[in-house]
């Protein structure tokens, strides 16, 4: 037997020695995952040649990241987000046919039981922020309107906070709502102009961003989950293209097709109709859903 | 501007978009580390195409691993160990000139303040296990003995436990000792034959090993740190080549050159000299230290 047959580890055969131990694994997918993870980890180590001290720094970084996770904080998801891994997994799982709206990350602020509201309702419950009216159509890739599409929308307020981050300050379910389209596929509702906000940056991931010279901000956006019978569910955002962070979203969620137009409107008659007091923002944005077979 | 210039993320340009954010990092080594880590992570994701559920499983595995770490348990080091990463980092940092003894992992059971003992002392303080006498020389690569070499040795007992794992059961500093060579470079001490033992396998890493069909055992070994003025410090083990797990060390620590000969001796006169009652084990093993300039 040579060193390889004996299973002894060397720099040269490190990947084969480690992955060959999984020969009898019954879960073929897990075996494959660990084969790739081991190979890529070893490739990274061989390319970087970390010192023992650097290796220990990495161990302690992962440990601090784990210790920062609790019931309401998921620092490993944040790490995945800032390294573009979350967006990559999203992209791979949501390759859309031509013409369909693109997806982006769900984020941690969705709430399952937001109230269903009549079309046109104002989801801003505390009258804070700059008024905004948002509308558009839910369409198939054939351009036909989709009836009974369910639009679940949520957004941060004008200071960059979601209701769940400011319990007792914002009303429950502030800036959240569920709407259902009629035969024309049209949706519309009233809200406030959202603002950019930082991801939680007081933990190990925030410190890493700081050490890399990166800011923690996400450009202003509204979140959507759009469901309709016979169509693939779409989880996405629309973004304000004039946001200062539009080209440097800390979690890489921006796509060209997700830029909406935020138009400022000065029209007292229309404002009055909408229950607004002065200038307001207007966004028109259609969403196109793909069918599973497309 | 095309999508790339705008910094918008796509499957194709994911690595470049993420790593270009670190352009202004002042710590060049950290920048390089994150460039390689990001690239290898994205390569792994692109090769595996994980589902959202698999991604979440990975997040939760890392979270559980972090939550298992505490003052006396380091589950991320264990993860690094079972994936061969610890041994790879050790190998990269301890490339030895021809003829020098090879290193292996330190492990978590070293204690800094073990007592210095007179040459020949018995480090077994509780008379449990099969008697063993171990000796050899500390040499330079030129074959000359090294005087004043300090040999820090520690081992598990005949049931596979270190003293620090059985406080109150084993005496403090059981099976540990520090010896110093004379002009002849010779060392020797008495001990007991060590036994294979499992790495801690009641946490996420143990569960992963189980799911991969891997056992958690390390073959029987003694640990050494050998220091001498003018030479590189050597952190290593010697292993029992007849151990049932010698070809499948859970942490990949075995190297061909670290196999010692554990000979059973039946010699009443010699046993009597050593203070042993019957048959005993004998190990002769030389260690060769490299100079930094070699």
UniProtKB/TrEMBL annotation, chains A, B:
Domain named Intradiol ring-cleavage dioxygenases: residues: 134-162
GO terms, molecular function: dioxygenase activity
Organism name: Rhizobium indigoferae
Keyword Oxidoreductase: yes
Classification of source organism: Bacteria, Pseudomonadati, Pseudomonadota, Alphaproteobacteria, Hyphomicrobiales
Family: Belongs to the intradiol ring-cleavage dioxygenase family.
Protein name (record): Intradiol ring-cleavage dioxygenase
Keyword annotations of the record: Dioxygenase, Iron, Metal-binding, Oxidoreductase, Plasmid
Pfam families tied to this protein: Dioxygenase_C, Dioxygenase_N
Entry keyword Iron: yes
Cofactor entry: Fe(3+)
């Amino acid at each position: 037997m040579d060193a390889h047959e004996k299973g002894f580890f060397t720099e040269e055969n490190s990947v084969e020695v480690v992955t060959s131990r999984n020969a009898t694994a019954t879960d073929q997918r897990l075996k494959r995952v660990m084969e790739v993870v081991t190979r890529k980890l070893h490739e990274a180590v061989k390319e970087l040649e970390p010192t023992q001290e650097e290796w220990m720094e990495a161990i302690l970084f992962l440990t601090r990241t784990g210790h920062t996770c609790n019931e309401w904080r998921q620092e490993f998801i944040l790490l995945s987000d800032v390294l573009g891994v979350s967006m990559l997994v999203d992209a791979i799982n949501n390759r859309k046919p031509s013409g369909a709206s693109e997806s982006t990350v769900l984020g941690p602020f969705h709430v399952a039981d937001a109230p269903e509201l009549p079309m046109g309702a104002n989801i801003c419950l505390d009258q804070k922020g700059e008024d905004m009216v948002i509308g558009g159509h839910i369409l198939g890739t054939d351009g036909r309107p989709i009836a009974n599409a369910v639009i679940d929308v949520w957004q941060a307020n004008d200071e960059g906070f979601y209701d769940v981050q400011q319990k007792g300050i914002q009303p429950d379910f502030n800036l959240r709502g569920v709407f259902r389209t009629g035969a024309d596929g049209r949706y519309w509702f009233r809200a406030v102009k959202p603002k950019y906000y930082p991801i939680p940056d007081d933990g190990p991931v925030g410190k890493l961003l700081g050490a890399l010279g990166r800011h923690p901000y996400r450009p202003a956006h509204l979140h959507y989950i759009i469901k309709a019978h016979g169509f693939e569910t779409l989880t996405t955002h629309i973004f304000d293209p004039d946001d200062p962070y539009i080209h440097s979203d800390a979690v890489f969620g921006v796509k060209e097709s997700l830029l909406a137009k935020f138009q400022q409107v000065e029209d007292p008659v229309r404002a009055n109709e909408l229950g607004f007091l002065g200038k307001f923002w207007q966004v028109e944005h259609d969403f196109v859903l793909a069918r599973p077979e497309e």
